[in-house]
Structures are given as C-alpha cells and as structure tokens.
C-alpha cells in the first residue's frame, strides 16, 4: 500500500501556496490572487483527501492540474509587478511548481524513499549549480582584473574564463558521483541528433518570439547583449567562444553533471525537466539587469527553459556531450551574430 508521502508533501506545498495568496500582491493582480487562492485550496483538498485514505487516484491528477493553474495565476501576479519582486505571487509560483512535481510523483505511485531520493538529488543539483556559478564568477573576476580595461578584452575574457570555471565545477561534480565524462567520437547518430537539435531549438525559439509579440509580453536581455549594444565589437569573439567555451562548459555542468545525476532518482524524461529548471534558475542574475521588471525576467526565463529542453533531450537521446554542445554553441553563436548585424 502506498504510504501517501508524496500526497503529504503536496498538501503542505499547496498550503504554502494558499498562504502566499494572502501576502502582498500587485494591485493590478487582484483577480490573479483570487484565482490562485481557489487553485491552491483545490490542490490542498485533493491532496488532503488522498493522504487521509481516499482511494481515488484521479485526485492526484486534479491536484497537479490545480498546482499548474496556481503557478500560472502566480506568474500573472509576478508580471503585474512594475518594481521589486512581490512576495505573494513569487512564493505562490514556487509552491505551484512544487505541487506539480509532487503530483507527478504521486501519480507514478512513488513511496517515501523514492520521493525523498528525488528531493535530495534536486537539492544537491541546485547546490552544485550555485557553487559552479560562484566558482566561475570568481575565476572570471580574477582574470578580468588582470586584463586591460577594454571591453573588447574584458568581455570575452570574462565569458571564456567563467565558462571554463563552470566546466571545471562540472568535472568535479561528475568525479564526485560518477566519474565518467560522456565525451566520445561522434557517431553518425550523434551528428543526426545534433542537426535535428539545431533545427528544433530555433523552431522553439522563433515560436516563442512569435508568442511574445502576439501577446505583447515584456522581456529582458542577457547582460552580454546589453554590453554589446554599446560595444558591438565584442560580439565576433563571442561567436567563436560559443563553441569553444560557453557550450562545452555549460553543457558539461548542466547535462553530464546535473541531468545525469538526476537520473539516479528520476525517470530520464523527468530528469530532463528537472535539470532544465536548475539550468534556468542559474541564469536568473544574467537576465535580472537594472531596469528589468519581474515580469520581463520571468518571461525571458520561461523562454530559456523551453529552449533548454531541447538541449536536455539531445543529451538524453545520445548520452554524449557532442550533440548538446553543438546545439548550444550554434544557438548562442547565431544569436551573437544576429546581434552584431543589428547593432552595426
């Protein structure tokens, strides 16, 4: 008999989401706050019934759908903020995502040990990513301090060294839990997956660009792009570094490191999603530049999460870094090249 641990965790998270609807929300998000209250309450009731012995597995699906709706309502609340990050919708958004995750575990029939394993691995993955971010940033700061004070030098140096730092942190993480770096001679299948991934990532990118324009959603830019507006000459070196440093460094950490580590507790598909959440979260500071509204940052991170799913899928299909590195490098290189054309 299932011990209902997943439902218990989901009930607590739904309660957190419900409490968050009574915190501060933007004035223009009153309707979203009321909707969030209803969805959080529905998730809590559904999970509460399950954890108290109601034999109706469909209630787990109801709770998951309510959690997704809670996250969407909270996202509208974040989008309505014009200055500062409001606590109400921010907490509700995280709670809603957590409810969805626990609903997935509950629907799969996972018991306490399996759910706890997922919790531990996800937390370790987040900590490893944060540590890599700090390590790479510190290395880059030292390198930039030794370089001439010229954006044409400091920006590529910062990007290259930080990416190498992420890769080194990824190597250390892999050595700690597994010891194998997934780099081999590319097979014909690896090339095919890489090619399909390049097509897929740009298809997703331009589909999202269209949605942003149709619904007139706010968005923000990476700090590198903001620097390039004033100094477009930094972009050609970044095109090359996309393949030599950025793609390899970030994919070694995010895919061979985090995603593969999550395989130990998640299904492979769930590990792709969870790993992309960690990857997206690691980019928050890069997009939360001065003047960016919370809504703009959230929309941009949502786009990043969607395109990163392609990277996660290419690694999952090949169990090798070649395809995701090629796709990642090509995606970034094209963005930098297009920005150079636009800015000059």
SSE sequence, one letter per element: HHHHHHHHHHHHH
Count helical runs: 13
What is the 3D shape?
A: globular
- Secondary structure class reads mainly alpha
Helix content: over 70%
Tell me the Rg in angstroms. 21 Å
Strand content: under 5%
- Rounded to the nearest angstrom, the distance between the terminal CA atoms is 66 Å
Q: Could you report the average pLDDT, rounded to the nearest whole number?
A: 94
Low-confidence runs: none
- Main beta sheet: none
- Structurally, the number of domains stands at 2
Tally of strands = 0
Explain what you see.
- With 344 residues, the chain is an all-alpha fold.
- The chain has 2 domains: 5-110, Substrate Binding Domain Of Dnak, Chain:A, Domain 2, CATH 1.20.1270; 117-343, no CATH class.
- The protein contains 13 helices and no strands.
- The protein has helices at residues 5-20, 30-51, 58-79, 87-107, 112-146, 151-177, 188-214, 223-230, 235-262, 268-281, 284-287, 294-318, 322-343.
- The mean pLDDT is 94.
